[in-house]
Every structure is written in structure tokens, then in C-alpha cells.
Amino acid sequence: MTYEVATERFSGPLDKLLELIEEEKLPITEVSLAKVTDGFIKFLDAQSGTLDPNILADFLVIAARLLLIKSKVLIPDLTLSEEEEYEVKDLEARLEIYRIFAARGGSASSHIAGYWETRNASFGRPFLFIGSETVFLPGNRLTPETIREAAARVFEELTALTPETSKIKTTIITIEEKIRELMERFTRAINSNFRELTKNHSRSEVVAMFLAVLHLLKRQEISVEQGEQFGDIMLKKK
Amino acid sequence: MPDSEEKIAILSAAIEAVLFTYGEPISIAKLAKIIPESGGPEYIPPAIANLTERLQKSKSGLTIISRGDEVQLVTRPDLRNIVDSLIKEEFSEELTPAALETLAIVIYGGEVPRSTVDYIRGVNSSFIVRNLLVRGLLDRTADPKRGNAYRYRPSFALLRHLGVDRPETLADYAKFRDMLLKFAPPN
Amino acid sequence: MPDSEEKIAILSAAIEAVLFTYGEPISIAKLAKIIPESGGPEYIPPAIANLTERLQKSKSGLTIISRGDEVQLVTRPDLRNIVDSLIKEEFSEELTPAALETLAIVIYGGEVPRSTVDYIRGVNSSFIVRNLLVRGLLDRTADPKRGNAYRYRPSFALLRHLGVDRPETLADYAKFRDMLLKFAPPN
């Protein structure tokens, strides 16, 4: 129930992202997305204790994409796989379309809200035959067995609503655990540089690593240095 | 509302809309009350005359009948065979899976408000519930807890048809009843 | 029934009588079945167009709304302001942001799977979709392409409340619909 209420009130990660971009009056581009990544992570960090785990999962998915974009902008050597390129472009396209449907002033939503609030509305009327005659028309399908089957169907569908929720929870634990695991590994090998640390690693690991760097920076457990823009990042344990 | 041509036309349209949504005979006094802009009961009869003439001239399938000071919007008498055909067609249709599910919820629930049927099925059931009422499969009774709402229960004819005198004797009654109570919406 | 002007007018009156009695939305196929004199489903749409135009020209209090191949006879939207009794039937609640976004996506999309709503909103929308179904603002229909999945559509109740005669007449309909059509979530 709380989740239902939470999802009703909460507009989700794309809404937050759009808010950040609109605050800065930026167009929707890779560079803009990289720019607002920190703000997004900061928000996520501040909210992560209070957010419903299901919603947090939706946020983490977007956070991972943002970090991918940010690493692409920051590390020019980083060549993305076809799938990752798709993910970057896809987030931009989704934001563009979400901007139109967003409750925060998107034009499609505004149109609908306008019609909803207008004082014009049509009304229908139920079938006129009601109550005018006593009839009993069960048809051929109505038996105790079909009724029992129908009840079974209804409750099967109802029970199916619950597992969907637990599946999301499993995914999010995996994401969080993975980050923790990486951070431990990373803390051990800290006096290093980012390029070396991520050599021969998969793109998603590079992204997760970048996320770990941000977290450690935030906790002031490391300091970082970058000689020039797009240069390698030196990491030092404090 | 004074009596310019245009205003009579608007009032006639408003009366038509009211008669349509009510479906039953309505008195002139009530029409005047429902349409405050009419200006009073004396403005209703000219607008009804206008409506009657308009329906006839435009060859509408509907017409006005009046008895005393009550009026009703009905289908044109010569279209009666088509209305009969509609009723026959509607009732010869077999119950859909959705209709059976709705019946099952009401039967295992004993007596439930429509909001429970909607909530358990996860979709609005107003049309199906009305259809089952018309077919004589459900009965309704005013909900003592809520003003305009009804509670629905299986009709006696339905229970007889299923060969049970009480729903409790149906297979898996206790199981489904428990689930219903578990999933029912909070009141 | 061939298509002379007069015969179309007769068929349009017959359709009006059926829509009036039935009240609910009804499909063209079902209308053709109920009115065998129509000559077949292909003769129904011109007669519906004729009926719509006749209602409009004669300044009737009633009008036709449609979604795909279904039509319903309803009251003219602007009359809500002068007929007091109509107001109580309404959806009085305000829309939450989640509800507004979901309705906008479905109504401009015409008929969309839940995955599209989830993908555009960036959040799992199962609860809000269910909530809108229970409130009767959305309808669902089995997805022909996928076994257990549904596609969602604006309900007639939603169209009536918005005061639009069909989704296509919404502001920017073609533009937003094209955007949604081009934009399909990965499977």
C-alpha cells in the first residue's frame, strides 16, 4: 500500500533529471546530462534512506546510465560498445519524449489537464432495459465448475501482482552489493590511476568503478587529481 | 431564460439531455429545477414543443411522449422491431470470462459493493454488473453505509440454477471466501 | 440497404434508436447485426456520419462520441454547465502527476502496452495503471501479439469527462501520436 501511495506521489527519476536540466536551462544533450549527473547522484544519496526500494531501483538504473554518459564525456579514450552507445542515445530520446508527457508542464499532459478541468463533459446512460421486466438468462456457460474456474483465475492474477514487486527488490540488492564489492576492491588498490584501474574491464565495470570513485570522494576517503581536462584521473587514499 | 428563438433552442437541447440521462418520465416542475437557467416552469412547455418539432423535422429515431405534466424521451414507435432485435441480441450472447469472474466474486463474497468487485478484478466493472442485473443473475440492495451505492448478491434464480441453496455449499467456498476477504479493499 | 440519401437517413434513425436504448458504447459490427436491414457493417459508418451531422445541425442536446470502431450516444459537453443534475456523476478528484502522465501517454498513444508507459515515465507504472483501470478511466484489451499481456486505451468515460468526441480531435493529436509510434521500448 505504501508503495502504491509512493508511486502516485513520486514522479520518478526522469522527472528529477528533467528538473535538474530545466533548472540549469540546458538542452537535452550528452554534455548537459554529464553536467547534472552529480546533482542526480547527490539527490539519490540524500534520498536513498527514505526512498521505497522499488523506486530506488528505478533511480539506480538511470544513475548507471548517467555515469556511463559522464565517463564518456570525461574520458575521451573510452570507446563505448554498440549497446552502450544505444543506452546513451536512448536516455536522451526518452527524456525528450518524457519532457512532453511530464506532469511538470509537458505539453501533452497540460492539454489533458486542461480538458480534465474544463467545465465541459458528456454523459451517457446505462441500458434502458434495467428493471423493466423480470428475466433470467444464464446462457449455456454458467455452471458451478465455470464459476470455480473463474474465481481461481481472478485470484491467480491477484497473487501474481506480488512477485513482480519482490523481483525488483532482488535486482536492486544485486546492484547495491556489486557497488559495495567494487568499492572494497577499489579501496585496497587505491593509490592508482583510473585508466590503469579500469584497464581490461568491461564498460559496465568502468561505470560502476566511476560510481565508486564518486562515493569515496564524497566520504572524503580519497582525493583525486586530474592534470588536464579529459586527462587520466589520479586517485590517492587519504 | 427569456423566449428568444435561440434561447428556446438551447433550453430544448438541455431538456433533451436531461430526458436522455434519466430515461424515465420527468415532470415539468422537476425539469425547471434541474435546469435553473430555464427561468421557471412556465418556460419549459414551449421548449418541449420546440424539441418535439425538431425531432420530427430532423427525422430523428427518438420522439417525445407526454402524460399529464410528465414527459419522456423514447424511441420512435415504428422502430420497435429494431429495439426488440437489440434486446434479443444482447441476451442471446453467452457470458464472457469477465462476466463469469464478476459472478464468482459476488457469489463467493456473499454480498459485496461494486468497489470490491472493481478492486479484486483490477478493472472497472460497472458495465458488466449492469448487464448481469439485467439478465437476472444478480440482485442489488442499497448500501446502508454509502449514499448512492449498492451492494450486489447472487439472485435466487442464479443459486437455483447452480443447484445450490446456499453459496456455502459450493466447491472451495471457504478457500475463495478467505482470499476475497484478504484482498478486499480497505473500507 | 443501398446508399441513397433517404435510406442513409432511415438507417441513421435506426442506429440512433439502438444507441439510445443501449446507452453503452457499441461496435459497428454489433450494430450491423442488430439492424439486419443495414445490409452489412460497411453501411454503418456513413449512417453514423449522417447521424452525427444531423444531431449537430439540428442543435440536438445529444452527440456521438467514438473510439476506433465503437460509438456511443451522449449528452453535448457544453450542456454540463446548464444542467445541474449532470455534475454529480463526475470524476471529482484531481489527477496526481502519475495519473496525468499515464493518461496522457495512453490517450495520445491510442492503444499502448504497459511497457510503453513504464519506459517513457522511467518508473514501474503497474499500480497507477491498475488504479486508473479500477476508476474506469482506462480500458484494457488482450494484446494480440503477446499471450498474457494487455494493451491500454482511454475509456469512453474518460473521453466523456474530457468533453472530446474522439481521441483524434485532441490538441496536437497527430504530432504526439507520431512521436509515440516512433518510440517503441526495447522488448
What can you tell me about this protein's structure?
The complex is a heterotrimer, with one copy of chain A (238 residues) and two copies of chain B (187 residues). With 238 residues, chain A is mainly alpha-helical. Chain A has nine helices and three strands; from the N terminus they run αααααααβααββ. In chain A, strand 2 and strand 3 form a beta hairpin. In chain B, 53% of the residues lie in helices and 14% in strands. In chain B, the strands form two sheets. Chain B has a three-stranded antiparallel β-sheet. Chains in contact: A-B, A-C, B-C. At the A-C interface, helix 1, helix 2, helix 4, helix 5 and helix 6 of A face helix 1, strand 3, helix 5, helix 6 and helix 7 of C.
What's the SSE blueprint?
The complex is a heterotrimer, with 1 copy of chain A (238 residues) and 2 copies of chain B (187 residues).
Chain A: H1 2-9, H2 13-23, H3 30-47, H4 53-74, H5 82-101, H6 107-117, H7 144-188, E1 192-193, H8 194-197, H9 203-218, E2 222-226, E3 233-237
Antiparallel strand pairs in A: 1-3, 2-3
Helix pairs in contact in A: 2-3, 2-5, 3-4, 4-5, 4-7, 4-9, 7-9
Chain B: H1 5-22, E1 26-27, H2 28-34, H3 44-57, E2 62-67, E3 70-75, H4 80-92, H5 97-109, E4 112-113, H6 114-121, H7 126-134, E5 138-142, E6 150-154, H8 156-162, H9 173-183
Antiparallel strand pairs in B: 1-3, 2-3, 4-6, 5-6
Helix pairs in contact in B: 1-3
